[in-house]
UniProtKB/TrEMBL annotation:
GO cellular component: plasma membrane
Protein name: EamA-like transporter family protein
InterPro entries attached to this UniProt entry: YdcZ
Membrane-traversing stretches: 37-60, 67-92, 112-136
Superkingdom of origin: Bacteria
Amino acid sequence: MTVFILLACLGGGVLVGLSRQLNGRLSISTTPLIASFWNHAVGFAVLTCLGLFVGGLLPAGAADAPWYAYLGGPIGVIFVAAGSWVIARIGAVNSALLIIGGQMVTGVAFDYISAVPASFWANAAGIVLIVGGMMVSRGRRKTGRSQ
């Protein structure tokens, strides 16, 4: 189990961070839409080859999925293009904080919309801690540069 956890950390941390850095750099050299295009073109090629090699490229029942199951692709294009644009302007660390904070706050909002039983105070404290951490991080960076 430890090996799989380490692989998840490698894929989820190092490779995603590297991908964001490359997209941000490509966005500076070209445009965010071109960076997003190459991100998706390379990802499509690699995942298609992997699907053909391992099997299961088109899983059974894919045609029976509801229409909204396929919204991940267009949303992903927007997310990668926006991420490429943001990284070029505010940097990788600040954009990572923005993404993580946004995911956490959106998760709490989805829980409330879905009427998932949760503690209001625990969720509120979590959001305050996330926003506070982002503000402290930004404050330290500003004071560190001016000295």
